[in-house]
Amino acid sequence: MKNLKIIGKVATFFGIISTIFVVLSAIITYFLLQIASPTAPTEYVVFYILSTILPYLFLTMLSLVIAVISRGIGKENLEKEAIPQAQPAE
After folding, report:
1. Maximum Cα–Cα distance for the chain, whole Å?
2. Where residue 87 falls among pLDDT bands split at 50, 70, 90?
3. Which single residue of 6, 23, 43, 89 has CA 20 to 30 Å from 77?
């Protein structure tokens, strides 16, 4: 139970950090393309930025899914512990 909370917090942290890297990588790549080839077509710029941020985007989605699942399992365990079990009739 305690481990699920820790896993959820760590996964949320990595999801936030990966999101920051996605945004920074997209911005830096955009400005780099504007400096290197200002006449590049828009589709090229979009596909190049997407290919650059795809690994970070994958890590973001993966860690956020793990965070949501681990927190959901943790809440289910808390609800099961909070419900008192019925005593068998004697």
Report:
1. 85
2. low
3. 89
